[in-house]
Amino acid sequence: MVPILLTLLFGAIDGGRLVISHCMLSYAVIVGSRMASMPQTPAAVNVQNAVVAASPFLGLTTAAVTVSITNGATVKTFATRAVGDTATVTATYSYRAFLTFMSKFSSRTLNATSAVIVE
Description:
Oligomer: single chain
Structural class: alpha+beta
Distance between the termini: 59 Å
Order of helices and strands: HHEEEE
Radius of gyration: 18 Å
Number of strands: 4
């Protein structure tokens, strides 16, 4: 009986960690996209660093964060963004569960995207 209860307990903990990780990743890209929409932000690396700083428990790297600026179908560089362009920030995180024998939830790739109009 104890192994079943422990499996349920750690399964619930892993499920909670998965939900919290996704919420934290979503919040981090929202912070990044808001920062990318501000004219005071000098470079895309500042946005990437803001996303990493907004999700300290995930251990993200700047390589997992992409920043793109578009105006309709036209892709622009971060330095040439203008009012009315769309700043899109995307981040990817590899979630790893405690209970690796539960193959359905042992590892997942979480993605979050946020887009904001440049001010």
